[in-house]
Specification:
This protein is an all-alpha fold. It has seven helices and no strands.
């Protein structure tokens, strides 16, 4: 494959390396643990295993930096990597609704932010050592947040969600 073909698929070297090291792998599948907390815990453990590797710790900040300065890269990142992850969160919350754990679905982007945004911050910005105790705490906090959002957005008897 030639260089031109590579750059038609990827907007930058950082995007290509990020895709090759983190997203050419299969995304985590839903474990179906039977509870929202269990599902979120399984997801955060799977994503931590992917995002805590030395390559991911080096490439993710580089890609984030490129997103800030390269027009179009943000949209590509949103439409590919983030959309795939958010689909997992949509399915997770839909399962929780069907089990009666949540009053209704929540925005998958918000669920994603509550769990994986915190993980990314710990790994790439604050550089905290992320152990299983922290991972469990992240899942617990995200469960509480998602539950509160579902309650807030679906507490209106008329079914209208409150504005963000």
């Amino acid at each position: 494959m030639g260089k031109a073909a590579i750059y038609r698929r990827y907007a930058s070297k950082a995007e290509m390396a990020f895709a090759a090291t983190m997203f050419e792998q299969q995304l985590p599948t839903l474990a179906g643990t039977g509870s929202l907390h269990g599902d979120l815990l399984a997801l955060v453990r799977a994503f931590h295993a992917r995002r805590a590797t030395p390559a991911a710790r080096q490439l993710t900040p580089a890609l984030i930096s490129e997103i800030a300065v390269k027009p179009g890269l943000e949209a590509r990142f949103q439409d590919t990597f983030l959309a795939a992850e958010q689909a997992i969160f949509a399915e997770t919350t839909e399962r929780a609704v069907s089990r009666g754990e949540l009053a209704g679905t929540v925005d998958p982007a918000m669920a994603h932010l509550l769990l994986l945004g915190s993980l990314a911050s710990a790994l790439y910005i604050i550089n905290l050592p992320v152990d299983d105790a922290m991972i469990t705490d992240l899942a617990t906090a995200a469960t509480a947040g998602i539950t509160a959002l579902a309650d807030r957005h679906h507490s209106d008897p008329g079914g209208a969600a409150e504005p963000h």
